Amino acid sequence: MVDRGGGMPGGSRFEPGMHPHHRPQSQILVREIDLTTNAAHPIVRIGDRVHRPAGFWSEANQQLLTHLAKLGFNAAPRPYGFDEVGREVVGFVEGDSGAVGWYRIHSEQGLRKYAALLRDYHRAVKNFKPTGGVEFSNGSTRVMGGQVVCHGDFGPWNLVWDEEGPIGILDWDLAHPADPLFDVLYAVEYSAPYRDDQAALDFHHFDEAPDRRRRIEVFFDEYGIAVPENIHVLVAAMQRGVGDQVRYLASRGSKFQQALVNDGDLEIIENRAQWSEAQTF
Fold it and tell me: Tell me, what's the pLDDT at 24?
């Protein structure tokens, strides 16, 4: 999808206290803090929890986050079900997120920490199996052999950072069963990045054109697998898969993806895929 910042604050690193709705009204003044970055997807913080629009995938995501919480994977938000108006509720985590994430992955150290968090998430989720026929964002209800539930949107803008590195993963709406390489290629698309030099300077905020091959090798090395020989073709296929998911979610009524389709995002994705598969670095 188009480069963007923002995301859902949430995470289990900071254990939330009692929800304001469960305290006597005489003791508190409930205040909503608007965290919305897109009008089609309003998000608010109430106390130490985040209330966000639910989708058909939200029950599956609650199961996923519950699994991660039981394992003690502290980079995932704590799940708190749904509020009285049907919004999904997760824990809030304090830290830096959104556009600041681009700067945090410029250095090799930051890039390695980015890759390490993805590796650790995939290890934590490898044995998760959803129950009850719940649907993920691509319509899948099962995790097949060789698959994990990928985050689906593992960009630096969707992480929470402190001074040491990434401490939280935000915005799980696009989580879906797939080969874990999907998440790796997605992260590499945005961290190599698979963009021309001008875009790397203007939108990814590099001071000079990055050594993309070196950055790809660093990411794969930290994640723990070899760089595929046909990586440019694989990145292009992943990008087209992102386009397919945008198209699918728009057909299921998601306003955010419908807006992307109306704004020409599918054409942008295809142009990027063609650029990626033509590279030789």
Answer: 40
For residue 38, name the pLDDT band (cuts at 50, 70, 90).
low
pLDDT over 50 (residue 41): yes
Alpha-carbon torsion 80, 67, 140, 258, what sign? positive
Q: Are 273 and 166 in contact (CB under 8 A)?
A: no
Q: Which residues pair with residue 168 across a beta bridge?
A: 160
Alpha carbons 217 and 122: distance in angstroms, whole number: 19
Cα–Cα distances in Å, from 155 out to 4, 15, 105? 9, 25, 10
Residue with more model confidence, 1 or 53? 53
What is the signed CA dihedral for 98, 160, 135, 257, rounded to 10 degrees? Answer: 0
Q: Which residue has the higher pLDDT, 272 or 11?
A: 272
Q: Could you give the CA distance from residue 28 to residue 226 in angstroms, rounded to a whole number?
A: 54
Cβ atoms of 132 and 164 closer than 8 Å: no
In angstroms, the CA 113 to CA 184 distance is 13
How far apart, in whole angstroms, are the C-alpha atoms of residue 241 and residue 223? Answer: 22
What is the pLDDT at residue 42?
A: 80
